[in-house]
Design goal:
heterodimer; A: 359 residues; alpha/beta; Rossmann fold; 7-stranded parallel sheet; 8 helices; B: Rossmann fold; 28% strand
Chain lengths: 359, 283
């Protein structure tokens, strides 16, 4: 890689046979009747891209026929879709790669969208990688910005690379559809507009359960588990060696409880046996991206940093004003975590309860 | 049972720096490591080998210097190692890379059919998570990504039961070999190599395969075989170098805590609503 290059490919003209690909699609992610918020965010983004291109927004909703699916089709229109492809089959009740991939490949080949967007979730990334292969087309993962180069109506998908040190804009020029995944909470949530109207096109893939090798034996919902769910937490309170001794970890748990947060730790605490490795944040632990990350008594070693630096807001508490963590935290507080944590617990508790009564 | 573990040698991304004047990546002196996510898959393959017996082949595509990562994997307990290297592969995106790796896996299958392909969940340099699914789709293997646990495997019935992380819960899946598995990070801890494996790794004669050897079509690899093009590379706007330090009247923990909460809500006004909603819902 040399000098930052000028945008290329603007002069590229799409071959005639690919010009039939039209419209911007979002594959709407739903599991057990619950739509993932990223799909609604993507509908808002698809709306902007489609308006720029002068085309329609399509939403693909897959699952078993039922009231949940019908409600989701309505949601998709409210959040920006002009047409909903409602793909129903009992085989699609639970997500499994093979039937979803087969159906999506057929639906894309039948209706030919020019852009297909998915959430960069465990489902979206699993499915996108498979269908980009069957469709033989380009896929850009984890985009943070989507735009259209109007010169040739191509999608410009921008994403971080090399651990976020660089951004690159990637295009799929001579292949269709152009595919991209976007992480949850990267794009703004659009306003729902119930006055919007749209069409629903039903698709019946007529799948055979016997033709699907993988069976779902069970689904263990997170809310029924005691294990830490760091990767999906909105708020995380983490502790490091600065806490001194295992008993002090309770102060972290206390604050987390008031905030409805998960508790994270650094690797040394796991190695010392304070807690299990399901709470470890960092290079060999979990990568997290909460809205708020409170780091108490954590110095900011690079192995920890790479697992949490993408958090929306990082508050670091450390006695050492020169601690590395203050180089990349957004907010810093020089003080002893052992006294600050209980003070934060009290203050948060008061504010949240006072406001609750007022509200 | 024959297990293939695909690994990638990557620059230690934590240590990459951008030249302040030219805005280019400074690769000099950045150590090359095995992609950390691959190690969870390699360890799981070695555990299966310990448990039910298997031959573990590590496979990488990359420049000749990627040999170091293969020897490292051998020293940890892998049995064989294949380096897929050819200038024709340069510039491959994920579609072309999965095609090239698949050609090598098919070549390996000729002499010893492959039952499980392990890949890393994603790499730390590309972060795409696309090569594993690409390989599974091309091979027609069952695709098992984000696996947190292999509960059971039976070589007789060729059945495998796994736990898979999904949004909001864990799926317990039962499927048949052959399959492609990517392990979620933090699900196991890489072992230390044994002394005799380290000696073996040093002496091991690597299999070095070219595009011609695996029979991969030239039009489907490298830049030619890659649908995506990088049209622009640029440095993100750096965020304020240092944290904004919270000051309060006095240094009492209560004053500091109050000031910290004010600063949090000032920086993220929406967060206050979220926390309230959460508290109200009793979460």
């Amino acid at each position: 890689m040399s000098e930052p290059s000028k945008p290329q490919g603007r002069k590229f003209q799409l071959p005639e046979h690919l010009k039939v690909y039209k419209n911007v699609w979002v594959i709407v992610e739903q599991e057990r009747g619950v739509v993932h918020s990223v799909s609604l965010e993507l509908l808002g983004e698809a709306r902007k891209l489609a308006d720029k291109l002068g085309v329609e927004v399509g939403a693909v909703v897959l699952g078993a026929e039922g009231p949940d699916l019908n409600r989701i089709c309505g949601d998709a229109i409210g959040y920006g879709a002009d047409i909903v492809y409602k793909v129903t089959d009992p085989v699609l009740t639970d997500y499994r790669t093979d039937p979803y991939c087969r159906v999506m490949t057929d639906v894309v080949n039948a209706f030919k969208p020019e852009i297909v967007l998915l959430g960069a979730t465990t489902l979206g990334r699993d499915l996108a990688g498979a269908i980009a292969t069957t469709l033989v087309t380009g896929l850009t993962a984890d985009c943070t910005e989507l735009d259209i180069y109007m010169d040739n109506r191509s999608l410009a998908a921008t994403r971080p690379t090399f651990g976020g040190t660089l951004l690159c804009t990637i295009q799929t020029l001579a292949y269709r559809p152009q595919m991209a995944t976007v992480r949850p909470r990267v794009m703004a949530m659009p306003e729902r507009d119930d006055s919007r109207t749209g069409r629903v096109q039903e698709v019946f893939p007529n799948l055979q359960e016997e033709s699907v090798v993988t069976k779902v034996l069970n689904f263990i919902a997170d809310r029924e588990q005691n294990e830490a769910q760091l990767a999906f937490a909105d708020v995380i309170v983490s502790g490091g060696k600065g806490l001194g001794k295992p008993e002090n970890l309770k102060l972290v748990f206390d604050l987390a409880k008031v905030l409805g947060a998960e508790v994270g730790v650094t690797r040394p605490l796991v190695q010392a046996g304070w807690v299990g490795n399901d709470r470890q944040v960092g290079q060999t632990g979990k990568t997290v991206r909460p809205k708020l990350y409170i780091a108490a008594g954590i110095s900011g070693a690079i192995q920890h940093r790479v697992g949490m630096e993408k958090s929306d807001l990082i508050l670091a508490i450390n006695t050492d004003p020169n601690a590395t963590i203050f180089d990349f935290a957004h907010l810093g507080l020089v003080g002893d975590a052992l006294t600050i944590l209980p003070a934060l617990t009290d203050a948060f508790g008061r504010r949240l309860s006072v406001n609750r009564m007022a509200g | 049972m024959h297990i293939v573990v695909c690994i990638k040698q990557v620059p230690d991304s934590a240590q990459i720096r951008i030249h302040p004047v030219t805005n280019t990546i400074m690769r000099q002196g950045v150590p090359a490591i095995i992609n950390p996510f691959d190690l969870f898959s390699l360890e799981e393959a070695l555990r299966l080998k310990d448990k039910v017996g298997a031959r573990v082949t590590v496979l990488t595509m990359g420049p000749p210097m990627a040999e170091a990562s293969l020897r490292k994997a051998l020293s940890l307990g892998a049995d064989d190692a294949v380096l897929l290297t050819d200038r024709k592969f340069a510039g491959s995106d994920t579609l072309a890379t999965s095609y090239a790796l698949t050609s090598a896996i098919l070549k390996l299958s000729e002499s010893d059919p492959v039952d499980i392909v392990f890949c890393g969940k994603q790499t730390v340099d590309g972060d795409t998570a696309q090569v594993g699914p690409g390989i599974a789709t091309r091979l027609g293997f069952e695709q098992l990504t984000y696996i947190t646990k292999i509960e059971d495997i039976s070589l007789g019935s060729k059945e495998i039961v796994v736990q898979r992380r999904s949004e909001g819960g864990v799926q317990v899946l039962k499927t048949k070999l052959p399959c492609m598995i990517t392990m979620l990070e933090g699900t196991n801890t890489m072992r230390f190599g044994k002394m005799d494996d380290m000696f073996r790794a040093a002496r091991y004669e690597l299999k070095t395969w070219s595009r011609d050897f695996t029979g991969a079509e030239e039009a489907k690899v490298g830049l030619k075989g890659s649908p995506t093009v990088v049209s622009k590379v640029f440095v993100p706007k750096p965020r304020a170098e240092k944290a904004k330090m919270i000051k309060a009247d006095g240094t009492s923990p209560d004053a500091l805590a109050a000031a910290a909460i004010d600063a949090i809500f000032a920086a993220q006004p929406k967060l206050a609503d979220d926390l309230l909603a959460r508290a109200a819902a009793g979460l």
